């Protein structure tokens, strides 16, 4: 695969930041998210994406909460990883931190593998996109996910919920790369 630019290195850097936040939040909250159903996590991701869109449209000075766009994209990535874990395990008891991190890495690795294949096929087209377009695509993917959830996870010809979460992770990482490195 011929990946242009520093995509792989930039992806690794953003992943590292997101994992660090995930790990630190576990110190504060443990794995309390384990009680959540995937559809509740979808709604949490939606809230974060809507806030990003509001900040994009009104400016970060508009924010009543002193957190900008970047922390929201990090939250989207981490909530998507949690949702992928929950899709596989179902809601349940808290996990030991080491096991949660292993599952987190597995979810993010799956999304990264998907990105490498798609990025190869699309020839780094994302580099020519605006961050606001990533926000809109994430919102669209969330609407699709909610629809699939309303249909009890059944699709006729479309990818499933897990593929949408992985796409959202990748679009959010692309947005963070653009915000941090460009």
Question: What can be said about this structure in brief?
Answer:
The protein has 6 helices and no strands.
Structural commentary:
The protein is built from six helices and no strands. With 182 residues, it is an all-alpha fold. The longest helix is centred in the middle third of the chain and has 26 residues, at 97-122. It starts with 6 loop residues before the first helix and ends with a helix.
- Elements, N to C (H/E): HHHHHH
| Rounded radius of gyration (Å) | 16 Å
Biggest pleated-sheet summary: none
Principal-axes geometry comes out as globular
Structural class: mainly alpha
The fraction of residues in strands falls at under 5%
Low-pLDDT runs of 5+ residues are: none
Number of beta strands: 0
Q: Please state the average pLDDT score.
A: 93
Distance N terminus to C terminus? Answer: 23 Å
Task: Report helical residue fraction.
Answer: over 70%
Provide a count of the helices.
Answer: 6
Keywords:
182 residues; globular
Please render the helix and strand layout as text.
Blueprint: H1 7-29, H2 38-58, H3 69-89, H4 97-122, H5 131-150, H6 161-181
Helix pairs in contact: 1-3, 1-4, 1-6, 2-3, 2-5, 3-4, 3-6, 4-6, 5-6
């Amino acid at each position: 695969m011929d990946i242009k630019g520093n995509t792989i290195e930039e992806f690794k850097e953003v992943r590292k930041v997101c994992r660090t936040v995930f790990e630190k939040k576990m110190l504060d909250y443990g794995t309390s998210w384990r009680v959540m159903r995937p559809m509740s996590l979808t709604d949490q991701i939606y809230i974060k994406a809507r806030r990003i869109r509001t900040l994009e449209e009104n400016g970060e000075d508009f924010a009543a909460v002193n957190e900008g766009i970047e922390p929201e994209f990090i939250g989207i990535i981490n909530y998507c990883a949690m949702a992928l874990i929950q899709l596989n395990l179902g809601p349940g008891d808290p996990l030991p931190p080491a096991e949660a991190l292993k599952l987190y890495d597995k979810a993010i690795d799956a999304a990264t593998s998907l990105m490498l294949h798609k990025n190869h096929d699309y020839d780094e087209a994302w580099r020519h996109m605006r961050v606001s377009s990533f926000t809109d695509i994430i919102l669209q993917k969330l609407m699709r996910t909610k629809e699939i959830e309303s249909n009890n996870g059944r699709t006729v010809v479309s990818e499933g919920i897990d593929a949408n979460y992985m796409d959202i992770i990748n679009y959010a990482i692309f947005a963070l790369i653009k915000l941090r490195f460009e």
